[in-house]
Amino acid sequence: MDPPWGLDVQDQAALTLMLLLEGSAWIEADGALMHLDAGSVAIVRGPDAYRVLDRPDAESSVRINSDQGCTTVGGDSVEVSMALGVSTWGNSLHGQTSMLIGTYDAEGAVGAWVTAVLPRLAVVSPDHADDRLKSLAMLLDCELGQQQQGKTGALDRLLDLLLLHVVRRWSEAAHQGGPNWSDAHRDPLVAQALSLIHEAPAASWTVAELARRCFVSRATLAARFKAAVGVAPMSYLSQWRLTLASERLTAEQTTAATIARDLGFSSPFAFSTAFKKAYGASPTSYRRQAARKTPQLEAAL
């Protein structure tokens, strides 16, 4: 974008990640205003509206709606007039400010345990970025320019990795007293429990069985897991299974019943009930919605 510009974001996304490649910008959410320099990464928790501006006192000129459609504040579409290619959008092909933007429609797609430590608006400054974060951003930017098979899946995974790494960096920089992912992997007991769950998500895990495999008491495991991860072991297991299910629903044509069995749900009905509670749609509806949204998600990125 070239100034003046202001985006009124009303897409109701559960979470948005913005990486500023060039220039500068301001983000305003719930009265809080934060500045972004080149190399900064911002995470905004939804679904409430927020604004992205070229300067603190800028007026909004474009609105991002719930269907990711873009209009003027008055309601006129600008999707065609501001389109600059398959994956690029703005008011200038070589604008002063350039950023990568990725959104997660539903909180279940992010994993509540990943973002539990985040405020409404979190920013990682260039000073707190590291080589790994920069490399992930470079890979994401490079993949956007590809037109090869598997592009959507690659973008999804890179965005997930970038989000996780930003959460880690923010947690460390902010010195939060609450749980964070860095603590989870620094605690060898919690890391071992997480590895067991990740290696066999369909297993009939209980806190007692996890504790037995980790050679500690049930109470010790439960307390340290909750302190490091932010949720109880069985809650994490349920969320992890649902996250894996959401990925398979969008990447495969496997039936919901098969996915339910493969991931350890007691029945297809139990899987459907849990999935709808987390994602707001049945597994079948979620798959259809994801198929319809895939081109829009690539363009938004």
UniProtKB/TrEMBL annotation:
Q: Which InterPro entries match?
A: AraC_lig, AraC_XylS_family_regulators, Homeodomain-like_sf, HTH_AraC, HTH_AraC-typ_CS, Tscrpt_reg_AraC-type_HTH
Instruction: State which residue ranges cross the membrane.
Output: none
Under Pfam families, the record lists: Cupin_6 (PF12852), HTH_18 (PF12833)
- Segments forming domain HTH araC/xylS-type: 191-289
What SMART domains does this protein map onto? HTH_ARAC
Q: Does the keyword Transferase apply?
A: no
Q: What is this protein called?
A: AraC-like DNA-binding protein
Q: Which organism is it from?
A: Arthrobacter russicus
